[in-house]
Amino acid sequence: MWLKWFPWKFLISYAAKRHGFLDPVVLWSYFQRFSQPSEVAGPIELIRDNIVFHSRGLINSRAIPQNSDWIWPYWIQRQFNPSDKSFVPSAFSLTYINLTHRNWTAAGLPGLGYLPITDPAGTVTPHWDGWSLDFWLVDKNGNVQASSKIEGKTKQRLCFFGNLAVVTKTEFDSGKIISAVQVRQSKGEYVCDIKLRVRSSERLAVSLRPYNPEGISFVHTVKLDNEARRWQINDKTSVLFDRRVDNNYMQRYADGDVSARLADKSSETQDSVKCSVGMATAAAVFEPDENGQLDMNLYIPLRKQTFFGDRSSPKGNKPAGKALSWKDSLKGRCRIIIPDKKKQRLYETALRSVALHTVGEDVYPGPFTYKRFWFRDASFILDALLCANLSHLAEPVIGSYPSRQKTGGYFRSQDGEWDSNGQAIWIIHRNWKMKGRPLSTDIFESVCKAADWICRKCTNPDKDSMHAGLLPAGFSAEHFGPNDHYYWDDFWALAGLHCAAEIVESSGMISKAEKYNNQAIKLRRAIDASIEKASAKLNQRAIPVSPYRRLDAGAVGSIVCGYPLQLVEPEDSQLLATVEFLMNNCRVKDGFFLDISHSGINPYLTLHIAQVLMRAGDSRHFELADTLCRLATPTGQWPEAVHPRTEGGCMGDGQHIWAAAEWVNYIRSCMVYEQKTKNQLILGAGIHPDWTKAGEVVSIGPAPTLWGTVNLTLRFEEDSVSAEFKADWHGQTPEVVLKIPGFSQKTATQEAGEFKAERIND
């Protein structure tokens, strides 16, 4: 109790003023005035993550500026180059952070959790948040050619014929280096396998770098055991060579980068180095054969590791799962054939990205920055797995939900986020409907506890306020802004109550179903009343992100009522007014630009808008999809947010799995989607006019839906389209509507058969 009355605030304020600092107590009070009063000022997880993030940025600011002669990674070479369009002035910046090229691609095996990443220049980070390996050509004078320092001569692709491999090819003046990074099992352990092919008369240098795409990662000691053909790093990790090292050079931070030693002909090889600063570098040099060729392999054993902050895992930190083969992982997947081969390949790539980041009972939104579990991201990622007929990957994660739930029924990702309960119930319901199987007892009870929590959490509906009856103010998704009464949270809670009511009613629990339905009615009335007040206040129909905000980019959260939740009709005037505001005021380079937090073009939210437009019959969704197609990296990935000028990643993980999941679902929706409000299965609503030329064939299947699994093949002719439709229903049969743009609308109710639609001539 003494903590409550002891004058901590006075002491903190006095100490700050005495040393010339701003009073943190006063500063915090002003900080809180920008948000609505909330029981949680901000998630402790976010505060912790930002401290870690900016601590690294502080180290970066000490290491980078005065060491311009070092060979730095791709993002630093550009962000610190005043002649580059990526240049970011660092005046008054205490921390230096990758804000322009947050792009990387993971390799791995599905189910395993080891995710080595490769940056756009081919620099490989084998361990999560660890050191990296770079590959250089070194001429006879010791001059180094590094891919991170040259522009436009590096090509990269993702190969997935068999294993998944990130392949990087760099053309230098004196030759080329090709690397292929994959994860495989070798002698009973999993390794990051790097295959190198060098075609040059110059020497190859495999360089150990004390950094990764986020910045500095400390290397204190390096030891070479040439008999064992191995580097030992920090006495914990190692790099294995498939041959003896011809020359080995090492350097402490005080003596500069090891690249400088390669030009010193008097330099002697070393077997070890120790650096108290943690910036030791090393270079293992290999000679090509007389034909200027060198093919070799590096193996990095993938050690067990924990990921900071992954506290939502039901059994604590799980360093690695059980690996699946790619064949088993993707067995039975929903296949899509469309004439646009780039979009089709992006679908296949996105599907593999989603599968790769599903690890037993966990699903990760990214391989590096976001390698942890959130219910929000999981709901969209798991939905993509279900829609792609990969429920065998999704169900272990969903099955873990009861163990992730708090005693009071709260599905907690971070304190102050009130959307997670609705999201958890929604995805459980989606899986239940698509599979057509009864829920297990623990899942059923978990749904009831979660719905009861929502009922208790809603505020007093009788209060005369803009937020009467809504959920309390909370942090919600970080891309909305400070604590507020976000409609995003309320729409998710409303969907969760509807889903819970249907689940319990199917088990004969009528009174409980009535409870959830009645609470849903109350919440819907509260939402509608709040939106009407906000609309009157702003004198417009668009829905702001909260009743206390004017229209801004955060309003993108409010369109969740249309996609994916379908709480309103596709033609709802307020939904479409919101999308119209976003299209007219928040587009940059034909993508949705979110200036709150992300400060970039957001791929997954762009696709949310595209889904709403498609369902409303608005062809502008094609423009948004084409933008995403253009912004995809050469390996078929999207960062969380794209820098509008460099078109590199500027926020979040460089390989964002929510974005990949949205691409899977967007392409699927172009072919097949459910319109729950009308009990309709819509076919072909997103078929691009270019796909409808005579002779083209478009197909999808097996595609799970809420009513069963379907297969669809469309064959386009000069004046018509023939649709071959097969369905395996497991419950109520929907109305099946063929709705291809440019063709007459047709309805079919048969379980299997063919029907035709005529082309409409303008």
UniProtKB/TrEMBL annotation:
Highest taxon, organism lineage: Bacteria
Residues that span the membrane, as ranges: none
Listed name of the protein: Glucoamylase hydrolase
One Gene Ontology MF term: hydrolase activity
Signal among keywords: no
Record's keyword terms, sorted: Hydrolase
InterPro entries the record matches: 6-hairpin_glycosidase_sf, 6hp_glycosidase-like_sf
GO annotation terms (biological process): carbohydrate metabolic process
Keyword Transport: no
